[in-house]
Amino acid sequence: MATIYEVSKLAGVSLATVSRVMNNNANVSDATREKVTRAMTELGYRPNSIAQSLASNCSNSVGLLVSELHGPFYGPMMSGIETAFRKQGKHVIIAAGHSNEEREQQAIEFLISRNCDALILHVEAISDDYLIELSKGKTPFVLINRYIAELSSRCIILDNVKGGYLAAKYVLEQGHTDIAYISGPLWKKDAQDRLTGHKQALAEYNLSFNEQLLYQGDFMEDGGAAGFQYLHNNGPQFTALICANDEMATGAMATARECKLKLPEQLSIMGYDNVFFTRHVYPPLSTINYPINEMGRMAADWVLSNVYQKNTPPLQTLFEPELIIRQSVLTHPQ
Amino acid sequence: MATIYEVSKLAGVSLATVSRVMNNNANVSDATREKVTRAMTELGYRPNSIAQSLASNCSNSVGLLVSELHGPFYGPMMSGIETAFRKQGKHVIIAAGHSNEEREQQAIEFLISRNCDALILHVEAISDDYLIELSKGKTPFVLINRYIAELSSRCIILDNVKGGYLAAKYVLEQGHTDIAYISGPLWKKDAQDRLTGHKQALAEYNLSFNEQLLYQGDFMEDGGAAGFQYLHNNGPQFTALICANDEMATGAMATARECKLKLPEQLSIMGYDNVFFTRHVYPPLSTINYPINEMGRMAADWVLSNVYQKNTPPLQTLFEPELIIRQSVLTHPQ
DNA sequence: TTGTACGCGTTATCAG
DNA sequence: CTGATAACGCGTACAA
Fold it and tell me: What region holds the HTH lacI-type domain (chains A, B) (predicted)?
């Protein structure tokens, strides 16, 4: 592999000059620039990015931590991020945290030890304190789907109370009044917010929230299944079920069907996230759109702007949810 | 950030010795090892992985190229790969090729320019010739889901003709004789193989393959939809439809339902891949399992073994498909 | 067992 | 506009 040194010899210039033309930096006369580029192509020269990193103290890599590499939610997010970075010649190193505090911490340390210039984190288990502490370190990071007041400018989030509100309002508009709710783990901010929005809508309709119709799930399929089972057996009657995310809605649908309920005739179901497979379940699931792809891209833009000083479109940290109507919610016969 | 130099000073030893204890390499007396480690923790020393890479000519990074970062198929694959590598302190750089020849090439060049020690490629559009040429370069790579005779030992593949055979056989066993088939793009080896297996099963049942019941799809949802539409309007009658992958099966199901067919009563449908959402469609889709997660892990083991000389479990390049029975195929009434 | 000295391929700081 | 030359932080023959 040719080095900058050989190029300089062949072009009859110094190392510094070659470096200059590579980086389009200082003023170089067209003549010498020409000589150098010719030498480069002749030798098939390729810069050694590692040497560049060492010398410039910039690895051009950003670490991306998600809970799972599979899972319908993270794919579009990674996709938006990778696309944005590759256009700029940065590369992304991925790691999975598995929603587990220790593993999330390990992943972060791993990414930092890899000399990432910045981190994009979608973490769930790690504490606010840890992140606040981390923010004092030298590796900058953005948070997706997590709000910490002290770090607010680096938090890219969805307006979850609005989302919860939209879901409930839509169901209410269809005439339902007995509405069950399977929430996420309520120690999570997003789960709380969605529930808050839900209650707001109820209040607008002068309906009081019935604690008997609440089940705290885990954002996973099994939680939805268990939730439906529990509510079906122990709770009061309900004609609609709102789940705090699509996976739980899916689990609930499967279990409801096992209980011989006809969907959506005997039970309207509403999800949240608009994960791609919601179109394919039966009946197609009405849900709330979570623009995770755009949010990923925005996280990338944040890094591009704040770490690499690139020009980017204006940054935005709060995103809006949107109602997606399909066929899983029926008008309630009066 | 402390460097090896400061550690050596504090420990009262030379740079080389510090380096030695870091790499557990040469013989170092317990006493000095002790001194050094103490100095390291006291300074909170962290090795600079970039400097290590430059000096050792090993970046400890492997490039992973998939078609899409989203999409149900690649998630489990990336997951298996990332897990295997992180255990060994290697990191994975991801890139998306978008099933497009030019972009796949760009991605490969990008990864190579990033000094990856090895590449794991799931490519679709790139030519065999390009890959054979690439194999002469200095960056080793493995191929997933692609067979090239000249590169056979680095091809990790599924026995697709067997998979095609299993799918057809199962449907035949249920008494169907009029079976439509939506294939993948037939210039792709895996699409061909699946169809070959399909025909084999038919032959075993003394049934001749009816070209009228074949539609060439694109492995995507729309292809399945178009395929069903076409076969439904133009083809002979059929009581079962086998699709060469789950996405097309999903598209076909949606369209069949739009055509007022009751599923699975009026049409049995079979998929291929066992992508995770097949459990959630309605009716739950019978399909062929593609152990992509394991295959990803195997690709990682290949790299660990061949590039990093780590001990790994025995390598395996050919994987077996498996029949997954759910509820989308009904016994055909005689 | 330990230390010296050089090399890895660039960038960056000065002079000129 | 261009050229020396010193970092960058570490691995590794080679010598001691």
Answer: 2-56
Q: Is residue A56 part of a domain?
A: no
Are A164 and A250 within one domain? yes
Protein residue minimizing CA–C1' distance to C9: A51
Q: In 10 A of CB A131, how many CB atoms?
A: 20
Cα–Cα distance measured from residue B72 to residue B75, given in angstroms and rounded to the nearest whole number: 6
Q: CA of A51 vs C1' of C6, distance in Å?
A: 17
pLDDT tens, position by position, A274-295: 998 898 888 999 999 999 999 9
Query: Mind giving me the DSSP string for A156-178?
Result: EEE-HHHHHHHHHHHHHHTT---
pLDDT averaged over chain A? 94
User: Could you report the per-residue pLDDT of A31-83, keeping only the tens digit for each?
Assistant: 889 889 999 999 999 999 999 999 999 999 999 999 999 988 999 999 999 99
User: Residue A15 is part of which domain span?
Assistant: 4-47
- Find the closest chain B residue to A86 by CA distance: B95
A85's enclosing H/E stretch is helix A74-87
Same domain, B277 and B164: yes
Instruction: For residues B79 and B148, state if they share a domain.
Output: yes
CA distance B111 to B139: 10
Alpha-carbon gap, residue A246 to A130, rounded angstroms? 30
Whose tokens are 């083809």? That residue is: B235
pLDDT along chain B (334 residues), means of 10: 89 91 82 91 94 95 96 93 95 95 96 96 95 95 95 96 98 97 94 98 96 96 96 94 97 94 96 92 94 97 94 93 97 81
Q: Is residue B71 part of a domain?
A: yes
Residues of chain A found within 8 Å of residue B94, distances taken between Cβ atoms: 78, 82, 92-94
Contact residues for B136 (Cβ-Cβ < 8 A; gap 6+): none
As a whole number of angstroms, the distance between CA B39 and CA B46 comes to: 12
Residues B176 and B256 grouped into a single domain: yes
Task: State the nearest Cα–Cα gap between B206 and chain A, in angstroms.
Answer: 36
Q: From chain B, pick out residues whose CB is under 8 angstroms from the CB of A94.
A: 78, 82, 92-94
What pLDDT digit, counting tens, does each position of B73-102 carry?
A: 999 999 999 999 999 999 999 999 999 999
Do A190 and A176 have their domain in common? yes
How much is the mean pLDDT over chain B?
Answer: 94
Residue B159 has a CB neighbour count (10 Å cut-off) of: 15
Nearest in space to A109 (alpha carbons), one of A147, A65, A74, A79: A65
| Number of folded domains that form chain B | 3
Residue type, A241: L
In angstroms, rounded to a whole number, what is the distance separating the alpha carbons of residues A2 and A59? 21
Same domain, A188 and A258: yes
Across the interface, do A115 and B50 touch by the CB < 8 Å criterion?
yes
Residue type for A94, please?
I
Tell me: do A114 and A26 sit in the same domain. no
Residue B140 preceded by cis peptide, ω within 30: no
CB contact under 8 A, A96 and B110: no
Looking up residue B14, the CATH number of its domain turns out to be 1.10.260.40
- Identify the bridge partners of residue A216 per DSSP, sorted by sequence position: A183
In this structure, are A300 and A153 located in the same domain?
yes
Residue A194's CB: how many other CB atoms inside 10 A?
30
B154 found inside a domain: yes
**Interface membership of A285 toward B (CB under 8 Å):** no
Share of chain B above pLDDT 70, in %: 99
A139/D13 CA-to-C1' distance in Å: 36
Please report, for the domain that includes residue A208, its CATH number: 3.40.50.2300
Q: Is residue A77 one of the residues assigned to a domain?
A: yes
B30, amino acid identity = D
